[in-house]
Design brief:
The complex is a heterodimer of chains A (111) and B (118). With 111 residues, chain A is mainly beta. Helix content of chain A is 0%, strand content 43%. Chain A contains no helices and 9 strands. The chains are: A mainly beta (111), B mainly beta (118).
Chain lengths: 111, 118
């Protein structure tokens, strides 16, 4: 019962910006949007998270629409090492703050 | 930053034996840890929530007698797959919240443990 929808896969040329969309139309007012990625056979790696303002860190930027029903993760200069499955997650309001994972987007960076 | 260590990274065992996987928070205390299971080309599936000093909370469909979880200290949780069978072969991943369990904090993951049951 993932609360987000993402494209199954995307390609991006090396050196270009990779823009990964995510829809979370049922998000509640106090739920954060998290982005993680998982490189093959490794544990997920945290990328960025936000509530309603756009966020930027050393890895990526997160753009959240004003109505908070969708967001976009931007990798500004994609490299081959950015090839991974990217997960957009909305924190479910449970007492122990679980994250429910959707299918994610397989991002393939091409040389 | 917060680090979660998981051991072993790979394990191969015979059918019917038990396997223990350890998850440690190296530089923070984790009152709650989570155990996930991931089959090839699928997303993470939450198995259980491990609470320090108390019984784990299992997700629907996860057999608590087969997947024993112990969270004896604030830095260690263990998952024991009992009487393992080939269908238990999977990628098992643990995670923990670094710091206070609030929405603004980050869930840190271990590197995962690949279990192969022959």
């Amino acid at each position: 019962d993932a609360k987000t929808t993402q494209p199954t896969s995307m390609d991006c040329a090396e050196g270009r910006a990779a823009n990964l969309p995510c829809n979370h139309s049922t998000i509640s007012g106090n739920e954060y949007v998290y982005w993680y990625r998982q490189i093959h056979s490794q544990g997920p790696q945290y990328i960025i998270h936000g509530l309603k303002n756009n966020e930027t860190n050393e890895m990526a930027s997160l753009i959240i629409t004003e109505d908070r029903k969708s967001s976009t993760l931007i990798l500004p200069h994609a490299t081959l090492r950015d090839t991974a499955v990217y997960y957009c997650i909305v924190r479910v309001l449970r007492s122990n703050y679980q994250l429910i994972w959707g299918a994610g987007t397989k991002l393939i960076i091409k040389p | 930053g917060a680090v979660v260590s998981q051991h072993p990274s790979r394990v191969i065992c015979k059918s019917g034996t038990s396997v223990k996987i350890e998850c440690r928070s190296l530089d923070f205390q984790a009152t709650t840890m989570f155990w996930y299971r991931q089959f090839p080309k699928q997303s993470l599936m939450l198995m259980a929530t491990s609470n320090e000093g108390s019984k784990a909370t299992y997700e629907q469909g996860v057999e608590k007698d087969k997947f024993l979880i112990n969270h004896a200290s604030l830095t260690l949780s263990t998952l024991t797959v009992t009487s393992a069978h080939p269908e238990d072969s999977s990628f098992y991943i643990c995670s923990a919240w670094a710091g206070k369990t609030t929405a603004a904090n980050v869930l840190t993951f271990g590197a995962g443990s690949r279990l192969t049951v022959l």
